[in-house]
Amino acid sequence: MAKILKIYPENPQENLINEVIKTLNNGGLIIYPSDTVYALGCNIFDIKAMEKLAQIKKQKLEKAKFSIICNDLSHLSDFTRPIDTSVFRFLKNRLPGPFTFILDANKNLPLAYKNHKTIGIRVPDHPIPQLIVEKLGHPIASTSIKDDDEIIEYSTDPELIAEKYDHLVDIVIDSGYGDNVASTIVDLTSGEPEVIRQGKGEI
């Protein structure tokens, strides 16, 4: 059964964040809040956790396109090819924020991302995922939580999310109601921004 942790952005309790970190280091899956919708996350370096994440999304891991959640732009060079100054400036002006930026990947990607030529990078404007990544010491893999209802595309109520994912994840972070609009996906691989999906963020 999933453990519900009430962690609020105004005053995230360190002991609860540490519990989340321990769970991620032990291969657990979490549901966490962001500046857009609630999302599923796990340790990018734990292949079994990544496989569980893919199973929940009913995808094959090698074909899954899970974003990488960073707490700032310092992790870019770990996973992406060198980027132009103009592209870096473009990113810096919009992050943290409700965007997923597609960039050319380098060969240092974690095993679960093997053979991926591009990678989606997120830096949410929300203290909880930022704190988790900072304390974990590296980014986490992430994918939005979708609702089965086609009208309500994303689940917003953490209590209902916890009920639905009770036996699938280890921790649900209850940070109050989430948003119902996902991030805007922007492809930067050509050097010019191309909006792939219009979401919360405005370019």
Automatic annotation (TrEMBL):
> Chaperone: is it a keyword of this entry?
no
User: Single GO molecular-function term?
Assistant: L-threonylcarbamoyladenylate synthase
| Pfam families named among the record's database cross-references | Sua5_yciO_yrdC
Q: Where is the YrdC-like domain?
A: 14-201
Q: Which UniProt keywords apply?
A: Nucleotidyltransferase, Transferase
**What EC number(s) does the entry state?**
2.7.7.87
List the InterPro entries hit by this protein, alphabetically.
DHBP_synth_RibB-like_a/b_dom, Sua5-like_dom, SUA5_domain
Q: What PANTHER family does the database record attribute to this sequence?
A: DHBP SYNTHASE RIBB-LIKE ALPHA/BETA DOMAIN-CONTAINING PROTEIN, THREONYLCARBAMOYL-AMP SYNTHASE
This one is known as L-threonylcarbamoyladenylate synthase
What species was this sequence derived from?
A: Chryseobacterium zhengzhouense
